[in-house]
Amino acid sequence: MMQIPGLNDALVQQLLKAAMDARQHSYAPYSKYLVGAAVLDEQGRIHAGCNIENAAYPQGWCAETTALGHMIMAGGRIARAVMVTGAGSEIITPCGGCRQKLREFAQPADLIVIAGDSTGVRAHWTLEQLLPASFGPDHLKNA
Ligand code: THU
C-alpha cells in the first residue's frame, strides 16, 4: 500500500472507498469515463461526488466539483485531502478547472491530492505541485 505523508492509512482507505462508491453514481454516457471524488474537510468529514455530463457537452462537470459542492453545503470550508478515482492505465489527475476550484478552499501546500482506482492508490501530490503560482483569494484582498 502506498503511504501518504500526513494521512493515516485507514483514512486514505475511507477516502478511496467513498470516491469509488461515488463513482458508481457517475453520469458519463458520452465519455464513458466514470469518475468519483471524495474531499476530506477541516472537521474530518468526507464529502463525495461524481462527474455529471450533459448532452450539451461543455455543460458537464467533474466529480471534484460535485464533491466540493457537497462540502460547502455541509458547512465545510477547508479541503485537507481529495481522492479522485478513475479507471484505465493512465493515472487520473484533476483537470485545470478543478485544480482552481480546489484552490479556493485550501492553501496549496496543505492540500493532498490523491489519485486512485480499483487497485488502490496510484499517485499523490500537493495542490501546490499541480497548480504552482496559483491565483487565490489573497489576490483580491485590498484590491
Ligand atoms: N473528469 C472528472 O470528473 N474529474 C477529473 O479529474 C478528470 C475528468 C470527468 C469530466 C468528464 O465527465 C470525463 O471525466 C471525461 O473528461
From TrEMBL:
- Which residues catalyse the reaction? 64
**What GO terms are given for molecular function?**
cytidine deaminase activity; identical protein binding; zinc ion binding
Q: Which Gene3D superfamilies match?
A: Cytidine Deaminase, domain 2
Residues reported to bind Zn(2+): 62, 95, 98
- Which Pfam family is one of those matched by this entry? dCMP_cyt_deam_1
SUPFAM superfamilies hit by this protein: Cytidine deaminase-like
Q: Which UniProt keywords apply?
A: Hydrolase, Metal-binding, Zinc
Cofactor(s) needed for function: Zn(2+)
List of residues binding substrate: 51-57
Query: Zinc as a keyword?
Result: yes
Q: Which InterPro entries match?
A: APOBEC/CMP_deaminase_Zn-bd (IPR016192), CMP_dCMP_dom (IPR002125), Cyt/Deoxycyt_deaminase (IPR050202), Cyt_deam_tetra (IPR006262), Cytidine_deaminase-like (IPR016193)
EC number in record:
3.5.4.5
Q: What does this protein do?
A: This enzyme scavenges exogenous and endogenous cytidine and 2'-deoxycytidine for UMP synthesis.
What family does the Swiss-Prot or TrEMBL record give for this protein?
Belongs to the cytidine and deoxycytidylate deaminase family.
Q: What's the protein here called? A: Cytidine deaminase
